[in-house]
């Protein structure tokens, strides 16, 4: 028994020299150190059965061989060695720092809104940012020189081409290609000719929602927005509604949500799709009604994370991005 | 306000009620013993651009009585009676007006109550005559203008301006007028920029004794165009450019004349000439079901009538077959009400939107597959797992960013009405934003990778006759190399199951330089991966080797195939390390092809372990794995495969290294 013990390590050394890859090294580890059927484990199991004279010192010898084998194995696996040599005993020292990719908070909020409305059967798509006057204005009941255009500072590329001022351009575009019943969200980039400051940027995001079917009404518009408020801001949230005016919805409303910490905040405009808009999309207003709403995801991001300057969202400082 | 309607509510309560009904209150401020409301009036409600308009809203909300001040009590014309010589050359420019002359006025400063009310409304007090015209405008929503009658020569004429005519307005500025602006001239000169600002030459001053008071209705479009052209917006133009009550001018004239005699002792010395067809109340038939279905609440005809009555609509219920209609007479000041649907808003806002029950929409729309953005989500997931950070940058960029990236700006789409230099050109590539974002971080980080998904823009038109604006995915790798950037593209495509990916060497193309590769999927060009030119980068303060890629999202999505699981090998893999010297003109893809061909069905995988130059020769260390689906390869078989592979490599000029 003793002699065979002495041969174990030289035999191991010979075998590990021939090992071609990590798998073979691993096989050797199992062969010698395996907990159940490893050579050393088997010897250890037999120790109690041996006569006392032979038993003396066996344990120590096995232990020494084990440690030699471990060291040799470790030299073949430098990485493992690194882990094994960890001597830290202060559990308050920080763990390893992992650098991972990050999703921009604006995407996260848009995804969250999509998920909430997906539950109500909404799908989503995007459309052109360079838009013609017809879809951005005229088909939405805003003829040329309508005073409502004043409230939407518009960037023009030419007389007819402009940068869309709202995602409402998708209302008629979408309805021309999809017949009711329709439930869709249109998140996307919009543009206003504004001086950049802490609450304005020339290009920012908007998210439009559109439902058209035979029974649409203000009550299910309000119910859906209330559902959204409670899903997004928490169960204690609720909405309240003001009369307003948009040329493409009638009646038009503005909606405030109750933010548990900040109180009432105006976050969206909405209303029943104006019959003229349905007509412009070749949908009969006597058969169908619809509702639409528009909200600013940038503003929701700012509210959600306590950000006070919209420019932070588009500056892309990693010290900001790495927080999300 | 309390002169017109009873108010029992606290100001903040009143503000809230107005707001619920659609008149937004921006602020409520205590001024002396008074409270000043700052209101935002939507463009459809010019009638609310007045104290009476708001009082009417309050009366409707609370079902109270609106009391209006009386017009002129004494119509007797003093002597001598003066003729009014006032002509409108083109009726559409000024379809209705009232005009008259007031004599024996004493121009002075206004009494305190008048000054006080004007100043609290944000209007500067000038003299009692001008103040009355402004006061009545604020009160009734009908602007007007007083001319010094003795400064006017002969007949006054309203006409359209000819291009480049000049007029010095009340503020002393000489204005060059656009074609079509409405002007008033006398026999010698232009005396008024109608609807916008009076002319200096006919200004009422302290010596004025007789005035001609003109209360017009102008063509809203002409006023709006002139206002925009001149960059001049006045309280009057803001009102005139909207659709006003065509019959309001007479009452406003009388009210002003009455006040003038009260504060400036003037008396009317002409008849009041009122021109324009008296417009009658319009009627629309509204089915009650339209109101109740749209609002989603059941209302009796009586309730609807009561609400409309409070808003001064006349109503009568009619039955046609089973349907109940309400014939509704629209008051003249409600020029915004044209369609039956407009009535639902009136009922809704006074009934109270917050009283409506909240329900979720019933049923489900027809099932449709989720469109492109789920693909975007997948792309984001993969890139994030590869340690890239997502950014959002501006899609409008500046000449200087384009120049720094060596992109000629003459081919780039731009806005025609730039406001800020930084936001002028529509980005032709996402790199404008990515490089800027890299620059923003270079002081704090020396190694990072960023990506963005968004549209880029080109001048050529798509099938909808809009400029092409495809969605792209682009990334930038600061302190990196080609292999890293390419590795990310390859991993992205693997994870998205886009199989027919190929890279081809491409000529330099700003802002990319060598090594630069075109990325192809199914042989169509979908983008580039390469190094960003150092000279360009240094202009952004980035001096580390930086690589980037930009790929077309839509073509990528089309190139996707479904993932079919490849059985994991049942028998052990045989690993071989092959060390090669390869001639300079031999590409890796040719080496790869040769090895795959040589190993045939036994090929499992190929990995580049190391690429070095040994004594001037290009050397590759490759790890190849062979397998067999049916058995464990024995040494004889492995030897046979090895021979074939070696032979193939020799044939293409690669030389096996001995070591």
Itemize the secondary structure elements and their pairings:
The complex is a heterodimer of chains A (324) and B (659).
Chain A: H1 2-18, H2 22-33, H3 39-46, H4 52-55, H5 58-76, H6 78-84, H7 105-119, E1 123-124, E2 130-132, H8 133-136, E3 161-163, H9 169-177, E4 182-191, E5 203-213, H10 218-233, E6 239-246, E7 249-259, E8 263-273, H11 275-280, E9 289-295, H12 297-305, H13 311-315, H14 318-321
Parallel strand pairs in A: 1-4
Antiparallel strand pairs in A: 2-3, 4-5, 5-9, 6-7, 7-8, 8-9
Helix pairs in contact in A: 1-5, 2-5, 5-6, 7-10, 7-12
Chain B: H1 11-20, E1 24-31, E2 34-40, H2 51-62, E3 86-88, E4 96-103, H3 112-120, H4 128-140, E5 145-148, E6 156-160, E7 166-168, E8 174-176, E9 182-185, E10 190-193, E11 197-198, E12 211-217, H5 220-230, H6 235-240, H7 248-264, E13 267-268, E14 273-275, E15 282-287, H8 288-295, H9 301-310, E16 314-320, E17 323-330, H10 340-351, H11 373-385, E18 389-390, E19 396-397, H12 399-404, E20 425-426, H13 431-441, E21 448-455, E22 471-478, H14 482-495, E23 501-505, E24 512-521, E25 524-532, H15 534-539, E26 546-552, H16 553-558, E27 574-582, H17 588-599, E28 603-614, E29 617-626, H18 635-651, E30 655-656
Parallel strand pairs in B: 3-6, 18-21
Antiparallel strand pairs in B: 1-2, 4-12, 4-13, 4-14, 5-12, 6-9, 7-8, 9-10, 10-11, 15-17, 16-17, 19-20, 21-22, 22-26, 23-24, 24-25, 25-26, 27-29, 27-30, 28-29
Helix pairs in contact in B: 3-4, 4-7, 8-10, 17-18
Brief overview:
The complex is a heterodimer of chains A (324) and B (659). Chain A is an alpha+beta fold. Helix content of chain A is 42%, strand content 20%.
């Amino acid at each position: 028994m003793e002699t065979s013990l002495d041969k174990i390590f030289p035999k191991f050394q010979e075998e590990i020299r021939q090992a071609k890859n990590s798998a073979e090294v691993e096989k050797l580890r199992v062969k010698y150190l395996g907990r159940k059927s490893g050579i050393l484990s088997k010897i250890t199991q037999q120790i109690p059965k041996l006569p006392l004279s032979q038993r003396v010192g066996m344990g120590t010898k096995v232990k020494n061989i084990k440690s030699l084998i471990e060291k040799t194995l470790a030299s073949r696996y430098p990485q493992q060695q690194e882990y094994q040599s960890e001597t830290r005993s202060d559990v308050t020292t920080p763990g390893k720092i992992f650098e991972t990719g990050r999703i921009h908070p604006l995407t996260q909020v848009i995804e969250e809104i999509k998920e909430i409305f997906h539950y109500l059967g909404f799908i989503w798509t995007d459309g052109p940012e360079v838009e013609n006057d017809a879809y951005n204005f005229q088909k939405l009941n805003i003829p040329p020189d309508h005073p409502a255009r004043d409230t939407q500072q518009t960037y023009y590329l030419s007389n007819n081409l402009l940068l869309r001022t709202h995602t409402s351009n998708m209302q008629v575009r979408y309805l021309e290609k999809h017949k009711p019943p329709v439930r869709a969200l249109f998140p996307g980039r919009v543009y206003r000719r504004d001086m950049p400051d802490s609450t304005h940027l020339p290009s920012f995001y908007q998210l439009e929602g559109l439902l058209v079917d035979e029974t649409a009404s203000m009550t299910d518009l309000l119910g859906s927005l209330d559902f959204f408020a409670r899903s997004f801001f928490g169960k204690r949230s609720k909405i309240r509604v003001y009369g307003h005016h948009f040329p493409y919805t009638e009646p038009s409303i503005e909606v405030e949500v109750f933010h548990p910490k900040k109180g009432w905040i105006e976050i969206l405009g909405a209303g029943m799709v104006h019959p003229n808009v349905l007509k412009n999309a070749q949908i009969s207003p006597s058969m169908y009604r619809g509702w639409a709403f528009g909200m600013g995801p940038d503003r929701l991001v700012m509210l959600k994370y306590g950000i006070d300057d919209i420019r932070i969202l588009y500056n892309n400082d990693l010290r900001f991005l790495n927080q999300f | 306000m309390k002169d017109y309607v009873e108010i029992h509510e606290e100001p903040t309560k009143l503000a809230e009620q107005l707001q619920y009904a659609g008149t937004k209150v921006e602020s409520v401020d205590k001024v002396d013993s008074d409270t000043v409301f700052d209101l935002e009036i939507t463009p459809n409600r010019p009638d609310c651009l007045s104290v009476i308009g708001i009082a009417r809203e309050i009366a409707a909300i609370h079902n109270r009585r609106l009391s209006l001040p009386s017009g002129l009590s004494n119509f007797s014309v003093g002597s001598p009676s003066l003729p009014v010589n006032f002509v409108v050359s083109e009726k559409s420019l000024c379809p209705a007006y009232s005009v008259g002359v007031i004599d024996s006025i004493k121009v002075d400063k206004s009494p305190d109550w008048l000054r006080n009310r004007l100043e609290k409304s944000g209007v500067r007090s000038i003299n009692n005559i001008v103040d009355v015209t402004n006061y009545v405008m604020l009160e009734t929503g009908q602007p007007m203008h007083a001319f010094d009658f003795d400064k006017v020569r002969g007949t006054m004429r309203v006409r359209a301006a000819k291009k480049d005519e000049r007029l010095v307005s009340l503020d002393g500025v000489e204005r060059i007028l656009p074609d079509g602006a409405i002007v008033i001239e006398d026999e010698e000169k232009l005396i008024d920029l109608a609807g916008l600002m009076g002319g200096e030459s006919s200004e009422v001053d302290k010596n004025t004794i007789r005035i001609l008071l003109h209360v017009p209705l102008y063509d809203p479009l002409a006023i709006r165009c002139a206002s925009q052209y001149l960059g001049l917006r006045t309280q009057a133009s803001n009102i005139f450019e909207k659709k006003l009550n065509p019959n309001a001018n007479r009452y406003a004239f009388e009210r002003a004349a009455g006040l003038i005699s009260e504060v400036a002792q003037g008396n009317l010395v002409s008849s009041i000439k009122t021109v324009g067809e008296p417009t009658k109340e319009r009627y629309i038939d509204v089915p009650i079901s339209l109101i109740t279905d749209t609002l989603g609440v059941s209302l009796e005809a009586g309730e609807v009538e009561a609400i409309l009555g409070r808003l001064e609509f006349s109503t009568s219920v009619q039955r046609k077959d089973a349907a109940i209609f309400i014939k509704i007479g629209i008051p003249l000041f409600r020029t915004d009400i044209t369609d039956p649907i407009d009535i639902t808003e009136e009922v809704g806002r006074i009934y109270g939107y917050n009283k409506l029950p909240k329900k979720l929409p019933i049923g489900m729309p027809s099932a449709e597959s989720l469109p492109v953005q789920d693909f975007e989500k997948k792309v984001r997931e993969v890139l994030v797992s590869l340690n890239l950070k997502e950014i959002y940058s501006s899609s409008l960029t500046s000449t200087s960013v384009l120049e720094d990236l060596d992109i000629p700006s003459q081919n780039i789409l731009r806005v025609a009405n730039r406001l800020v230099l930084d936001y002028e050109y529509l980005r032709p590539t996402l790199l404008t934003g990515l490089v800027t974002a890299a620059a923003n971080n270079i002081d704090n980080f020396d190694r990072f990778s960023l990506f963005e998904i968004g549209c880029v823009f080109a001048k050529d038109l798509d099938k909808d006759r809009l400029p092409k604006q495809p969605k792209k995915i682009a990334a930038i790798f600061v302190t990196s190399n080609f292999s890293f950037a390419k590795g990310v593209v390859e991993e992205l495509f693997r994870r998205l199951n886009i199989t027919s990916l190929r890279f081809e060497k491409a000529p330099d193309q700003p802002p990319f330089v060598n090594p630069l590769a075109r990325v192809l999927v199914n042989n169509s060009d979908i983008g580039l991966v390469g190094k960003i030119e150092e000279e360009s980068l240094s202009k952004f303060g980035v001096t580390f080797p930086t690589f980037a890629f930009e790929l077309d999202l839509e073509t990528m999505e089309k190139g996707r195939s479904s993932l079919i699981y490849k059985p994991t090998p049942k028998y052990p893999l045989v690993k071989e390390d092959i060390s090669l010297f390869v001639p300079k003109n031999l590409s890796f893809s040719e080496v790869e092809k040769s090895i795959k061909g040589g190993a045939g069905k036994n090929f499992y995988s190929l990995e580049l372990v190391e690429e070095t130059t040994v004594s001037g020769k290009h050397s590759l260390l490759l790890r190849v794995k062979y397998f067999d689906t049916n058995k464990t390869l024995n040494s004889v078989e492995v030897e046979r495969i090895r021979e074939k592979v070696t032979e193939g490599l020799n044939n293409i000029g690669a030389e096996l290294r001995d070591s």
